[in-house]
Amino acid sequence: MTTRATRGPRRRTVVALAVILSVLAAFVVRLIDIQVVSADEHVAQSLTKIGAGDTIPGRRGSIVDAGGTVLASSVLVYDAQLNPKVIMQLEEKDPQVPWAEASEKIAAITGQTGDEVRALVSDALAENSQSQYAPLKNSLTTEQYIELRDLKLAYLHMAGRETRVYPNGAVAGNILGFLDGSGKAQAGIEQLSEKCLAPIDGEESYRRGSNGVVIPGSERTVEAVDGGSVELTINSDLQWYLQQMIGEEAQKQGAKGGTVTVVEVKTGKIRAAAEWPSMDPNDLDSSTPETRYSQIFHKDFEPGSTFKAITAAAVIEGAGLTPRSTVTASSRETFPNGAVVNDAFSHPAYNYTLAGGLIDSSNVALSKFGTMVSPDVRYDYLERFGVGQKTLDFPSEVGGILHPVSDWDSQSLYTTTFGQYFTVTAPQLAGAYQAIANGGEKIDLSLVESCTAEDGTVVKSEAPKHEQIIKKQTAAELTRMLENVAVQGGNADRIQVPGYRVTSKTGTAQVSDGNGGYKAGVYYTSMVGFAPVDDPQYVVVVTLDEPTKVVSSAATASAFQKAMTQVMKTYRVMPSTVPMDELLPKFG
């Protein structure tokens, strides 16, 4: 029998149990909501509050020349900052490392005094009591970065910053290019080989409690991967000499600029690409926007008489002519369609051979020879020799202009036979003569040899394309005629390289006025050739932009002779051993 006395405690027990079960149920429901229903949201919030980490920057790869000389390399530095607000918050919570002690440890690493470090924070707080930024020190070394990082202070932050260094200054500077303030490649090899040079940044992450202390076991590190090393085909010693030389020659001739391009005949490799004005990537402020890019690849010009050799190739193969084929040409003639063509010097009607037309660089003679084949044939040969096509897809490179035959008018029908009404770059001109020197086989030019990854894996550049664009016999006849130009032409005495048989052809191109005409008395001069004739090894192209002392192609003679002589010395090319063939006649 249940009495009133026993019913009271039992009822209280049941009520208490019910309350406990209700509270427990509420906790369970809340726990399910936190850990299951809203798990992702809460994890994200927790990481935002307690997650921390630092980027570990990788180092950009180096650029070296063909012999391994470093032309560009990178040094990582770090800029450190403090968070005054977090420092004060931790001080109020009895931090593991008091600020007075931490500031002394920081100072010992950065080369400052503890008082100086503490002053940086107090000054920031005096200006703004909620300040979260106080610069500590910039340009810290990797060793300093590691020591500071190992202190594991929540209020210390360090941002990696790469400093690019070019040990040889302006040597190949226009080819190497440069980086902007954010480390992004802006030009040259830096931009062309970005995929190889660019590093992959790593990351160090960890979690910390509300007092800023790193939670043991939460550390996670993903190591950075440094960029690869790019090897160029450039010979930096030859590059240095040619840059000095073309700078002196260009200034001597009162020119706006000058270039020298050297190409290896049997490989198509560019061994030097020198220009003036040159750019030192270490000191961009000393250059102008125009001189920060390679004019060798960026500047196109009408090649003038240098492309008369390509007209000769077209008529030898397309019309069956030989070096001794003849036309009668005076120094000024009016053609049936009304076009007027002039030679650079006055002379009566000569019975020019094809070889003689090249030796005297007669526009009239080449006009007559050139029109013995159709415009479509000549257009085809201009394309074969690379006109209108980029050589390397180098940053800022232009492909030149090759107008379709349908645009050729009565005048350009003839001017295209002697290098006008189309434009080329110095590398395109070098590539055209490389084909002649190489028995008619054109090899795509190259500037990058390989990329060596951080792990030592070497990736060679894609093999250049080889194409037989003219017959070997045609190339041999062109070579013979071009040697006769070097021996019998007006610059013969000025371009001799003792011990070597050399070819040459000059170009004196008018400069566009931007309005469809040409500037009066202003020229872009060039000279191209290869040596030794009996075993061609190197092509040399020299250009001068608007020389004022000597305005004809003779302005380039001295620079060409010096450049070719130095190339033969640099590569220890054996002197010619086979004597020159009997001189070809200028007149029939």
TrEMBL record:
Keywords: Membrane. Residues 56-215 form the Penicillin-binding protein dimerisation domain. It is found in: Membrane. SUPFAM superfamilies: beta-lactamase/transpeptidase-like, Penicillin binding protein dimerisation domain. InterPro entries: Beta-lactam/transpept, Beta-lactam/transpept-like, PBP_dimer, PBP_dimer_sf, PCN-bd_Tpept. It holds the Pfam family PBP_dimer. Residues 258-564 form the Penicillin-binding protein transpeptidase domain. The keyword Membrane applies. Gene3D superfamilies: 3.30.450.330, DD-peptidase/beta-lactamase superfamily, Penicillin-binding protein 2a (Domain 2). Belongs to the transpeptidase family. This is Penicillin-binding protein 2. It comes from Microbacterium aurugineum.
